[in-house]
Amino acid sequence: MKVQIWANLGVKDVARTEAFYTKLGFEQTPGQKSEELTSFLFGNDGFMIHFFKEESLKNGMKGELADLSKGNEVIFSISAETEEEVNDWAVKVKDAGGHVFSPPEAFQGMYGCAFADPDGHKFNILKWK
């Protein structure tokens, strides 16, 4: 059995989300774009994250979405090959309109930083030592 997994996240402004991830250099998922949705491929295996307009995702989930101002839903991790790459990510995220809430630093045998996109979805960039 072939299984594919992807993530669905809610956003307030699909166009803003599309601009943010495009500025970071992610590839849009072919055929996955509308007024209610933008989608991007992450990593070498093409993990998809669909970003749905919040109301559309709430309808599909039959319930409320997490309030990211009060807590976390998940943090996605992206690998980096060098510490310089981690540092570059932090600059790109700020320039694209994201929030670097944990600046580049060494910790627990890694070097990394963490950021939130304009809707508060969290990612970290990690280089294993």
Automatic annotation (TrEMBL):
Question: A Pfam family for this UniProt protein?
Answer: Glyoxalase
Q: Which InterPro entries match?
A: Glyas_Bleomycin-R_OHBP_Dase, Glyas_Fos-R_dOase_dom
SUPFAM superfamilies, per the entry = Glyoxalase/Bleomycin resistance protein/Dihydroxybiphenyl dioxygenase (SSF54593)
Highest taxon listed in the record's lineage: Bacteria
Residue ranges occupied by any Glyoxalase/fosfomycin resistance/dioxygenase domain in the UniProt entry: 7-124
Report what the protein is called: Glyoxalase
Matching Gene3D superfamilies: 2,3-Dihydroxybiphenyl 1,2-Dioxygenase, domain 1
